[in-house]
Amino acid sequence: MHAYVTQAYNGLGVVERRSMTWLEPLQLESGARLGPVTLAYETYGTLNAARDNAILLLHALSGDAHAAGWHAGAAKPGWWDAMVGPGRPFDTNKY
Question: Which of 3, 49, 69, 81 could form a disulfide bond with 12, CB atoms 3.0-4.6 angstroms apart?
């Protein structure tokens, strides 16, 4: 975390970027094929036993999967850090 983050920071802390790659090409409506395709994502909080507390955040405007928390050595948190985390609108203690 950056030096200006103090104990008062009640966010997610350091998070890991994860990814999944589909090796089979994706068939587009145009007939073109795209692949392999890699999806980058991050997860926050804990999935409950019923597996019904998940929220999917899409990032079409930023083009970046780093929505919240800090990557090790990063100079700033994710683009929606103020919205995701304990006690925030997307409360990781609830969802």
Answer: 69
Tokens of 69: 């928390």
What would the pLDDT profile of 60-75 be if each residue is shown by its tens digit? Answer: 766 788 889 998 888 8
Give Dmax over CA atoms of the chain in angstroms.
53
Question: What element of type H or E holds 4?
Answer: none
Contacts for 91 with CB less than 8 Å, ≥ 6 apart = 85
DSSP codes, 15-41 = ---EEEEE-SPEEPTTS-EE-SEEEEE
Give residue 82's identity as a one-letter amino acid code. Answer: A
Q: Specify the pTM.
A: 0.70
Quote the CA–CA distance of 51 and 49 in Å, as a whole number.
5
